[in-house]
Automatic annotation (TrEMBL):
Classification lineage: Bacteria, Pseudomonadati, Pseudomonadota, Alphaproteobacteria, Rhodobacterales
Pfam families per UniProt: Bactofilin (PF04519)
Renumbered residue ranges of the record's region Disordered: 123-142
Family to which the UniProt record says this protein belongs: Belongs to the bactofilin family.
Annotated protein name in UniProt: Polymer-forming cytoskeletal protein
Source domain of life: Bacteria
Low complexity composition-biased segments: 123-136
PANTHER family: HYPOTHETICAL CYTOSOLIC PROTEIN, POLYMER-FORMING CYTOSKELETAL PROTEIN
Length: 142
């Protein structure tokens, strides 16, 4: 099994009426497999597999070997794999080797990024109707 194998894209939001809880993956864990959640995941452990969720925090003591898919990623640890996220914040202790596909990206001084950066374009907003200039009245007097 390769961790670079594509996996089905998870729904990144909780089902209607559900209350997604935050999950904390403690430093004493070592996970060999994919991790997916509909809530916030705070990672302190070692993961060999893909990671997906709406809001992921990879803490400075964590290492992920696999691809990450998220709406928001806060990276303070080490990631070896490709990242696809709407918002990516790489903190001073963050280390990333791989491709980052993002809409908004911030990289703090001291962070290390090795790989490709690809900005994805946000979905187009419908164009607002142009204001209509007032027309002169059609009556003319002589």
């Amino acid at each position: 099994m390769s961790y670079r194998d594509p996996v089905q894209k998870p729904a990144l939001t909780a089902p209607a009426g559900a209350s997604a809880k935050a999950s904390i993956l403690a430093a004493d864990l070592q996970i060999d497999g994919h991790v997916t959640s509909t809530g916030h995941i705070q990672v302190h452990c070692q993961i060999k597999g893909n990671l997906a969720g709406p809001h992921l925090t990879v803490e400075s003591d964590a290492k992920v070997q696999g691809d990450i898919t998220a709406e928001q990623l806060d990276l303070g640890g080490t990631v070896e794999g490709d990242v696809t996220a709407t918002v990516v914040n790489i903190h001073p202790t963050g280390r990333l080797t791989g491709r980052i596909t993002y809409e908004a990206l911030s990289v703090a001084a001291g962070a290390i990024v090795e790989g490709d950066l690809r900005r994805k374009v946000a979905p187009a907003q419908p164009a607002a109707a142009a204001p209509v200039a007032p027309q002169p009245s059609g009556s003319a007097s002589e």
